[in-house]
């Protein structure tokens, strides 16, 4: 039985692969920027942080690759546009208040803007893009506390007991199906026409896009399945399924979910490769941990 049949079977007994992604908010944690955004009904949000004298997006949800690549900006720009710290500042597209920020958005995202909301703190600038819908912004003090914790808390697969526990639960379903997912070609294709000022800017932008795409992968492969972002745009996956896995269909679903970020043409560069099958937790964890 192929992956599609597996998805259909899971839909009858509980959320399937794609449906689980749509329902991720039910299992989100404070460690995830996506989960925090879902908790507050934010569909397009990004965090700017400073690198020496420049700001750029380090975390994003619902921002395409081009917009992330366009995020490099000076401290003088933000000092001149956001005049206060610690409170929301809102700019309306209908009153032409958003023009100063157009430089940060692709044509696709520019067409979405009804309002732009900014919250500036000592550590970051949070940008929320609001489309033509109602939105209740979270309290500024709670934003600062939650995002500061998120930005400076790092999970380590080497010491992640939750991952090991998930693998053990997964092995009660089946052996671990191990995969390498490469998103490098998709991301470099998506930003190939962006004139980066420096190689460092290019590398930091690509890493931010990797992180956003990895967030999609995490939502698709929820526990007991596991996904780990490795080096150079490689994601390692351990997937548990009683039925035969249709790898081509799996790759199609993953690429389809990433299209909104990298575009249709670039998403063709998403490549899924099988790394074998493992019957035990030790070998599965070693696969996920390896460099």
Description:
- With 291 residues, this protein is α+β, with helices and mostly antiparallel strands.
- It contains 13 helices and ten strands.
- It has helices at 3-13, 17-22, 33-39, 65-69, 75-81, 107-110, 140-151, 161-171, 184-190, 199-220, 247-262, 264-267, 281-289; strands at residues 45-51, 54-61, 73-74, 88-92, 115-120, 125-130, 176-182, 226-229, 234-239, 271-278.
- The strands form two sheets. A six-stranded antiparallel sheet has the order 3-2-1-6-5-4.
- A hairpin with a 4-residue loop joins β5 and β6 (125-130).
- The two termini are 33 Å apart.
Keywords:
291 residues; alpha+beta; six-stranded antiparallel β-sheet; 13 helices; 10 strands; disordered N terminus
Please write out the topology:
Blueprint: H1 3-13, H2 17-22, H3 33-39, E1 45-51, E2 54-61, H4 65-69, E3 73-74, H5 75-81, E4 88-92, H6 107-110, E5 115-120, E6 125-130, H7 140-151, H8 161-171, E7 176-182, H9 184-190, H10 199-220, E8 226-229, E9 234-239, H11 247-262, H12 264-267, E10 271-278, H13 281-289
Antiparallel strand pairs: 1-2, 1-6, 2-3, 4-5, 5-6, 7-9, 7-10, 8-9
């Amino acid at each position: 039985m192929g992956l599609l049949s597996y998805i259909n079977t899971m839909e009858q007994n509980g959320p399937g692969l794609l449906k689980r992604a749509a329902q991720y908010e039910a299992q989100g944690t404070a460690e995830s920027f996506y989960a925090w955004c879902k908790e507050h009904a934010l569909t397009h949000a990004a965090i700017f942080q400073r690198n020496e004298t420049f700001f750029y997006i380090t975390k994003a949800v619902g921002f395409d690759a081009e917009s992330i690549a366009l995020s490099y900006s000076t401290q003088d720009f933000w000092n001149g546009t956001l005049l206060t710290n610690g409170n929301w500042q809102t700019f309306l597209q209908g009153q032409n208040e958003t023009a100063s920020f157009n430089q940060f958005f692709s044509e696709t995202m520019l067409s979405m803007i009804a309002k732009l909301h900014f919250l500036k703190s000592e550590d970051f600038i949070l940008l929320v893009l609001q489309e033509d819908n109602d939105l209740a912004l979270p309290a500024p003090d709670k934003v600062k506390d939650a995002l500061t914790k998120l930005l400076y808390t790092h999970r380590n697969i080497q010491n992640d007991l939750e991952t090991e526990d998930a693998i053990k639960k997964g092995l009660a379903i089946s052996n671990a199906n191990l995969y390498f997912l490469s998103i490098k070609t998709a991301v470099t294709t998506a930003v190939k026409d962006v004139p980066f000022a420096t190689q460092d800017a290019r590398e930091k932008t690509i890493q931010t896009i990797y992180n956003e795409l990895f967030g999609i992968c995490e939502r698709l492969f929820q526990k007991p399945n596991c996904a780990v972002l490795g080096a150079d745009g490689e994601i390692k996956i351990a997937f548990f399924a009683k039925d035969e896995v249709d790898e081509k269909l799996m790759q199609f679903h993953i690429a389809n979910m990433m299209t909104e970020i990298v575009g249709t043409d670039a998403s063709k560069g998403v490549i899924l490769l099988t790394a074998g099958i493992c019957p035990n937790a030790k070998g599965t964890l070693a696969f996920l941990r390896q460099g």
